[in-house]
Design a protein that fits this description.
The complex is a heterodimer of chains A (294) and B (131). With 294 residues, chain A is α/β, with parallel strands linked by helices. Chain A is built from ten helices and eleven strands. With 131 residues, chain B is an alpha+beta fold. Helices cover 36% and strands 19% of the residues of chain B. Classes of the chains: A alpha/beta (294), B alpha+beta (131). Chains A and B meet through α1, β3, β4 and α4 of A and α1, α2 and β6 of B.
């Protein structure tokens, strides 16, 4: 009796063909994007999205054409940070037109499809019980559609803001034709670094091209005297060597950065002279200088 | 998933797919090209949901892919997409009444089961309101 592998094709169900066509659409879309970089942390609350938003703005200030894909489908916040919350995605001839934020940064996010600001992402499933059985599949499909159906146009950089979780990069790899680099974000906390380390190990297993680390909240900038004070204890300082990656930037904590994110204003524009803004500009210059393009 | 006619040792071929009125289970019919015997695959709601979540249709699809099709279909609540032409037309409406017009047009579009707001939908609302 024949076994599964003895039978060529899929018997006409065309599932494999549809998946292949979807992958083809993603490849065609990404052909006009020079570099796709994933920003990951593994740990939540380290400021990854704030880093993504300000790296995007800093790259744009340096003349790069930038897009951002908010891959945090369940907790999207890039629309707020890039100042386009409440705007709707428009349907153009070549797909869905991304929302245009400050400095021309393009954004695709689940947030732009939700009817109200505080509306949660809820799927209309005929079998809503036990969503663990299908939720991962629909999220991968949704991420693939945001990538392939957004009319990104010509971009120098597409930054993908990943949700927390060491497994998230693997999910992105499943739908992204090529990821040109991964930036890991952490803070000077041993707990955060432990999780980030897991993400880095996971990324290495995927043979992802790890560019380096961004140490967020590396110090506290006193708003009164401007003195730089440590925010965490010295033993928690991020050592690139320990994590096996170069440190691309160290961003000091600045309450104005959080305020700008809340207001949807690019911090790097509003506070150009601030040490953290300068660190973002240096990070953007380092990322641009790398020869990661295809 | 593939099906084998054990008697003929022949791969069965997809014949048709259908969904019962409740829409929560999938049916796919396969037939043996040699003996003609037919069988039906009856998927339970979870299996059906999984196939849908993958964004594929059993037996292929005739309609071309629409942007963000699966996301928009699958969200419990989703904003309607406006075509660029429709958005441009809305921008010609005085700003203070724009939100009301947007809401009326979207309500009409939803009632009609439209997936997008186009200039044609806007025309329909205009005629309905006698403008």
């Amino acid at each position: 009796m024949k076994t599964y592998h003895d039978i060529a094709g899929d018997g006409g169900s065309d599932i494999a063909g549809q998946v292949a066509r979807r992958e083809g659409r993603a490849r065609a879309r990404m052909a006009s994007v020079a570099r796709t970089l994933a920003v990951m942390s593994g740990k939540g609350g380290v400021g990854k999205s704030a880093i993504t938003a300000n790296l995007a703005a800093a790259l744009a200030m340096q003349g790069q054409r930038v897009g951002v894909l908010d891959a945090d489908l369940n907790g999207p916040c890039m629309a707020r940070m890039l100042g386009v919350q409440g705007r709707a995605l428009a349907l153009g001839a070549d797909g869905v037109e991304p929302a245009l934020g400050s400095l021309g940064v393009k954004l695709a996010s689940m947030d732009l499809l939700l009817p109200r600001t505080a509306a949660p992402v809820e799927w209309a499933a005929p079998a809503p019980a036990h969503p663990h059985a299908w939720r991962g599949a629909i999220e991968a499909t949704a991420l693939g559609e945001f990538l392939a159906d957004t009319a990104w146009g010509e971009l120098d950089f597409l930054l993908v803001d990943l949700p927390p979780g060491p497994e998230r990069l693997a999910g992105l790899h499943g739908v992204l034709p090529q990821c040109d680099g991964v930036i890991a974000v952490t803070i000077p906390s041993q707990v955060a670094q432990l999780t980030v380390q897991r993400s880095i190990v996971s990324a290495r297993r995927l043979k992802a091209r790890l560019i380096g680390l961004v140490e967020n909240m590396c110090a506290y900038l006193c708003p009164c005297c401007g003195a730089v004070q440590p925010l965490f204890t010295a033993e928690a300082e991020v050592k690139g060597g320990t994590l096996g990656l170069p440190v691309l930037a160290r961003i000091p904590f600045d309450p104005q950065l959080a305020r700008c994110c809340d207001q949807g204003v690019p911090y790097v524009v509003a506070h150009q002279a601030a040490p953290a803004a300068k660190a973002f500009m240096e990070l953007a210059a380092r990322v641009s200088a790398r020869g990661d393009s295809r | 998933m593939k099906f084998l006619c054990v008697a003929c040792d022949e791969a069965m071929q997809f014949v048709e797919a259908g969904e019962p009125p409740r829409g929560d289970t999938l049916t796919a019919v396969f037939g043996c090209p040699r003996c003609g015997r037919r069988i039906a695959l009856l998927a339970n709601p979870w299996e059906t949901q999984l196939v849908r979540s993958m964004g594929v249709a059993t037996g292929g699809r005739a309609a071309p892919h629409e942007p963000l099709e699966r996301v928009r279909e699958s969200l419990a609540e989703c904003r309607l997409l406006w075509t660029e032409e429709a958005e441009r037309r809305l921008e010609r409406v005085p700003e203070f009444v724009r939100p009301i017009v947007r809401e009326s047009v979207e309500r009409h579009a939803r009632e009609r089961g439209c997936r997008e707001v186009t200039c044609e939908v806007m025309d329909e609302v205009r005629s309905k309101m006698g403008m």
